Task: inverse folding
């Protein structure tokens, strides 16, 4: 409940934050008024899709992080662990390098999404039908290492310094200059992912007791794994496709919220979805307020904020044990 | 009434058979002690019977759908795992969730009472001591409220009083018409509390019957390589392994 209010407040704040020196009331009025004026244009074509994307991506990252941690029974798990983000990044980098990114409007996110789908396919193939959490983590680490190396190779061999520059900036993650076409491209895929992840709650609860006990309680672990991996691939793949690599949300948000839901992995799912949206909105507002003229990258800010929060949590945990 | 039938059940690890041609029946009201040396195949027998690993031959549980199986038999694995800081109440309630029902407060409360966990109800389960966690996990399996309960060394980490209490709980379940199969290494407790002993050795059944008929000197020497002391007291039978035959 508190999280819903926080997300709504931050969403509104995000709408009224920008380079144009306009008052908050005036901006919101322009959003609702259909007068075709420049402010309405700014609100509807720039700020609204940006805020909506922040919510969508935050929900995807938070939800995926909670599902991954629940499925692997490890508080250090995050969506990137199974190589989804790095495969998506490789797809995007290849598109930028080959010029495919210029072929049509959404060619870049499309290539990133393709990369994510291929990556998860490889993971599922490597881990096999009965593969447990351990083999999945190892397969994810191997895939992440391979895709990161291939991405570096592309950068390494890049004949064009501008393409390399563009690739580096894209990999930092950002919500600047996104439009409703990005929203419409990502939304259906993300929504499928959210639906899959929303169906994992009971299975994740049972997995609290380990794989053997969960299986004996009638839960189909192969189906659960498919839902988790498919859901994470779709939602995080689409998120990476439209916004680049944004880390730490999927790791920190479930970690921070877990005590508030009594440790329950199923109740953590909706809480982390809202928490992720709140964190991403806040970070995207900060990006615009701190250095307004410098196009500070969201992924950079997230890591700058997320890593100290995480270190602080570790410090507190150390005191408890 | 028969709760479990195994017919020629065989399981392999790679090409090596770890369970060969097990056939047995479990009726209602039995408290079965599954004993045998380390690596004899006790865990494999129960996991194969539950369909948790590939096997050949028949287990009556494998004919059931996954949810019907979860309604027929509860399983408590040996390695205790509580991944998240959920409360004892929440964790025990997972057992009731297994059968696809909503929260079944009556069976949860009964399981918590049976394992004497009332004082821990609202504590984080993974913050308790090892022995307390073991009891919480037993309560979780009890809350599944199944006719059949299979447990793998549930009393290994418990203090003597809790070991005795837990064996009494299993015996009580049997007297209510349910059946428990419990693997354990404490032959004294097995002799005292179980209605039937199944001795597993080298992947097969070496003996099966009432404790006094099974726990003979010959069997103790042949399967465990130990001598044993036994006596009848006013409080019941006493059985104690004494010395190894080969030093």
Result:
């Amino acid at each position: 409940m508190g999280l819903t209010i926080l997300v709504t407040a931050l969403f509104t704040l995000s709408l009224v934050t920008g380079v144009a020196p306009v008052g908050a009331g005036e901006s919101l009025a322009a959003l609702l008024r259909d007068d075709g004026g420049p402010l309405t244009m700014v609100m509807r074509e720039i700020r609204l899709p940006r805020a909506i994307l922040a919510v969508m991506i935050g929900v995807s990252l938070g939800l995926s992080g909670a599902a991954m941690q629940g499925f692997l029974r490890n508080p250090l798990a995050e969506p990137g662990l199974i190589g989804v983000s790095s495969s998506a990044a490789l797809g995007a980098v290849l598109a930028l390098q080959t010029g495919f990114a210029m072929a049509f409007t959404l060619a870049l996110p499309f290539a990133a999404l393709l990369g994510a789908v291929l990556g998860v396919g490889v993971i599922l193939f490597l881990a096999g039908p009965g593969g447990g959490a351990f083999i999945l983590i190892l397969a994810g680490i191997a895939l992440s290492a391979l895709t990161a190396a291939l991405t570096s190779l592309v950068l390494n061999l890049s004949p064009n310094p501008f393409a390399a520059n563009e690739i580096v900036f894209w990999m930092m993650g950002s919500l600047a200059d996104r439009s409703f076409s990005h929203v419409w491209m990502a939304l259906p895929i993300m929504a499928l992912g959210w639906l899959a992840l929303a169906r994992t709650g009971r299975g994740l609860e049972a997995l609290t007791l380990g794989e053997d006990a969960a299986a004996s309680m009638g839960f189909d672990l192969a189906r659960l794994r498919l839902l988790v991996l498919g859901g994470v691939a779709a939602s995080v793949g689409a998120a990476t496709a439209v916004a680049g690599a944004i880390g730490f949300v999927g790791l920190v948000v479930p970690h921070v919220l877990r005590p508030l839901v009594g440790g329950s992995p199923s109740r953590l799912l909706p809480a982390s979805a809202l928490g992720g949206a709140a964190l991403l909105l806040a970070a995207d507002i900060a990006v615009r307020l701190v250095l307004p003229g410098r196009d500070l990258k969201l992924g950079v800010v997230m890591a700058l904020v997320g890593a100290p929060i995480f270190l602080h949590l570790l410090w507190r945990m150390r005191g408890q044990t | 009434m028969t709760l479990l039938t195994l017919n020629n059940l065989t399981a392999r690890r790679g090409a090596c058979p770890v369970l060969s041609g097990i056939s047995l029946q479990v009726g209602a009201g039995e408290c079965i002690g599954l004993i045998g040396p380390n690596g004899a195949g006790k865990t494999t027998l129960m996991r194969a019977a539950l369909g948790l690993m590939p096997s050949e031959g028949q287990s009556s549980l494998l004919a059931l759908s996954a949810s019907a199986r979860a309604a027929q038999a509860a399983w408590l694995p040996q390695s205790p795992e509580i991944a998240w800081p959920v409360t004892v109440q929440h964790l025990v309630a997972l057992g009731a969730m297994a059968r696809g029902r909503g929260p079944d407060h009556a069976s949860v409360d009964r399981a918590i009472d049976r394992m004497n966990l009332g004082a821990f109800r609202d504590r984080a389960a993974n913050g308790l001591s090892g022995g307390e966690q073991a009891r919480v996990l037993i309560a979780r399996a009890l809350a599944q409220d199944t006719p059949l309960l299979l447990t793998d060394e549930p009393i290994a980490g418990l203090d003597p009083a809790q070991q005795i209490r837990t064996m009494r709980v299993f015996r009580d379940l049997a007297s209510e018409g349910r059946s428990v199969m419990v693997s354990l290494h404490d032959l004294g407790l097995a002799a005292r509390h179980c209605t039937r002993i199944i001795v597993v050795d080298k992947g097969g059944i070496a003996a099966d019957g009432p404790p006094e008929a099974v726990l003979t000197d010959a069997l103790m020497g042949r399967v465990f390589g130990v001598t044993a002391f036994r006596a009848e007291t006013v409080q019941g039978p006493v059985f104690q392994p004494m010395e190894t035959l080969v030093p």
User: Anything to note?
Assistant: Residues 2-30+38-320 of chain A form a domain with the ABC transporter involved in vitamin B12 uptake, BtuC fold (CATH 1.10.3470.10). The first helix of chain A runs from residue 2 to 15. The mean pLDDT of chain A is 85.
